[in-house]
Amino acid sequence: MRRYGKHTDEDDIRSRPNPKGNRPRTSKRPKHEDAAEGFVLTVDRGRLTCLVEDRTVVAMKARELGRKAAVVGDRVWLVGDLSGKKDTLARIVRIEERRSVLRRTADDDDPYERVVVANADQLAIVTALADPEPRPRMIDRCLVAAYDAGLEPLLVLTKSDLTSPDKILEIYATLGVNYVVTNREELAAGEAAERVRERLAGRITAFVGHSGVGKTTLVNSLVGAGRQRATGHVNAVTGRGRHTTTSALALPLPSGDGWVIDTPGVRSFGLHHVDPSRVILAFPDLVPGTEDCPRACSHDEQDCALDAWVAEGHADPARLDSLRRLLGTRERREGD
Known about the structure:
Layout: E1 36-44, E2 47-52, E3 55-61, E4 75-80, E5 90-95, E6 101-104, E7 114-118, E8 122-128, H1 136-149, E9 152-158, H2 166-172, E10 178-181, H3 184-189, H4 191-200, E11 204-208, H5 215-223, E12 249-252, E13 259-262, H6 276-279, H7 306-311, H8 317-327
Parallel strand pairs: 3-5, 8-9, 8-11, 9-10, 11-13
Antiparallel strand pairs: 1-2, 1-4, 2-3, 4-5, 6-7, 12-13
Helix pairs in contact: 4-5
């Protein structure tokens, strides 16, 4: 049924006043000079736990930040109730510019990037030598992500009591990646943690690895009593671990000189976001040879100048093979 007659006029139309219509719109944002600096420890369903001075404060992102999200490792500025008391909530009003960003995608054809951690200095790639079997392609992908993010990689090999690490170490010898080899007896005695801590001092280190490799068990031994996370086991049928860590968490080393960030176990590490031109930067001995490469050279094609440059004796051919193996990880699945 028509509400108005056949010939309606603007004056005949009833309009409701908008109580917000007179509020002037502005692009200016409050400066929040009284904001306190914090460090994001973990994120859970829109609530961020931050370290502010010597206390933990639960906060939410301020609306004025728009779609910009804070992640574990971010340096942020907070206002509101910063007491850290139960049932209090602060607001994050600024996020500092990040020094580094470790990203991953669900798969190589997934354009949606997931930020794993921010401001890390080092990426510890934890891999079991057995139970479950090591996956070199997964290690390669983590290395590429580390090089793309500007992080120094550290290879942590666990369960060396089950098999020798020589085969895996031989694969990565030409990359010059730092490594630590541990076994379950050393881990239980705390000896493994001491050796790993030497590599973590003064740094923020993100730990990654697929489920069941002993990543969270190692992190627990590194951070000491009172901060342990739940650990799982490896399924005897599938050879895979069960996800027990569901969100990234930053934990301080007992010495106070460094942080470890335990991340959820992953079964894939997509590299859709990776710029191949950044991976070459992790091979400083090969960079001079790229000066004569064609424009937008992927360094894995027939016209690449690196072939002739290496053939002339300027660099070890094994280094070029390692670079191209890493560059080719986007075309190969982790299980290949």
